[in-house]
Design goal:
By secondary structure, the protein is of the alpha/beta class. The protein has a domain of 166 residues: 3-Layer(aba) Sandwich (Rossmann fold). The chain is built from 11 helices and 6 strands. The strands form 2 sheets. It has a 4-stranded parallel sheet. A two-stranded antiparallel sheet has the order 5-6. Helix 3 links the parallel strand 1 and strand 2. The radius of gyration is 26 Å and the shape is globular. The relative contact order is 0.15.
Amino acid sequence: MMRVSLAFAMVVCVSSALPVRAQAPTPANPLWHEQKVKNYLPHMTWPEVRDLLTRTDMVILPVASLEEHGHQGPIGTDFLNGLERAKLIAQKTDVLVAPILFPGNSPYHMAFPGTITLPADTIQLVYFQAAQSLIQHGFKRFLILNSHGGNQVISRYIADRINQETPGIAVELGDAAAPFVKRSTRQEPREFDRHAGVNETSASLYLTPNLVNMSVARTAPLTLRPHLEKMLPEVVAGDPTATLVFLAESLKAEATGKGTSTKDMTETGVWSARDVKAASAERGREDSDASVNAAVAFIERWKQLRPLGAK
């Protein structure tokens, strides 16, 4: 018995002295870095969607674009920023986030490589049909989150079609959340800043920081038509009539003959009089928080006014 025990001990000692081979890591795509996000449809299984339907009948449909955003911003700025805000909303209140399309309506940016534009009829039809699919699964209320100015009329039309032609109920989320927005108290000069400028680049620095290259950011001089140049101070001052007619004519496709495509007005694609290098992640965080919190406040109020399952 002693010899057997001694032999066994020697085997154990020899075995423990041998080098241990590390297990090979599980193969994984080196480009994959996403973490699963709650209530984000592309990450969910169908049982998870079924479970969410026991808690909410609400869906956020981001409506975005693929278009130039100056030298510093990614083509996907509007899609990514809108989607990230939608996902942040869904962490604070139960609502499904269902991205449908990357591109939107951006014909005036087509002089810049990478921009993709779709006709308004195509965009609204795709979103309307997507909403019909979600209604069939049991979702009823739709929040159209537009993250590209050129889609404003399209987004409202999508909401109207859902309301007029389906059992669903829809609102344009920017309009709905506006009364709940806490206005910023920061002091800054009043300057023209509409596209790929300080505001939008700040949002990207907060929401998608590794996609922004501030080392190449630059603002080009604006080259507006004389009557628009004359109107600009009133637009900056907030005159509603001046703003309405200025935007009705500006940022229009080259084919319209208005001479107000993006390339006509700025060589970099930044449609802003401000120095884009003034953008900051802190500013982006403040604005994003205000937008997200206002949307959550509206959603919670709607849930009070129309509880889940109400007929």
